[in-house]
Design goal:
The protein is mainly β and 103 residues long. It has one domain. It has one helix and seven strands, in the order βββαββββ. Strands 3-2-1-4-5 form a five-stranded mixed β-sheet, with helices on one face. Strands 6-7 form a two-stranded antiparallel sheet.
């Protein structure tokens, strides 16, 4: 079975301004199953991996099953890079409605 992405993001931690992600919770798509949390990646690590052609998408749980959310990409605004699930050229990170955690 094919996988959704190299890395799956199930939770997010934003900074106090809610404009920048500090880190995200990572899971691995094993084809038939989704792993337990495999740790957290910093914002800079996500950007670095995206630039090296690694794929990321959000996931959410509904009715006790994991579902694929949106693909994650980099949007550049005035030479600054943002992590987003849309292509909007807005100066903040946005991964949709993922659950947030304190980090």
């Amino acid at each position: 079975m094919s996988t959704w992405a190299d890395y799956l993001v199930s939770k997010v931690c934003y900074d106090s301004s809610k404009n920048h992600i500090k880190e995200v919770e990572i899971r691995i798509d094993k084809g038939e199953t989704i792993s337990a949390p495999q740790g957290n990646f910093s914002r800079s690590k996500v950007i670095s991996l995206l630039k090296r052609d690694k794929s990321f998408c959000t996931i959410f749980k509904q009715d006790s099953r994991w579902n694929k959310g949106a693909e994650i990409g980099i949007v550049k605004v005035d030479r600054e890079e943002f992590i987003r699930t849309d292509k909007n050229e807005i100066e903040n990170d946005n991964l949709g409605d993922l659950p947030e955690y304190k980090c």
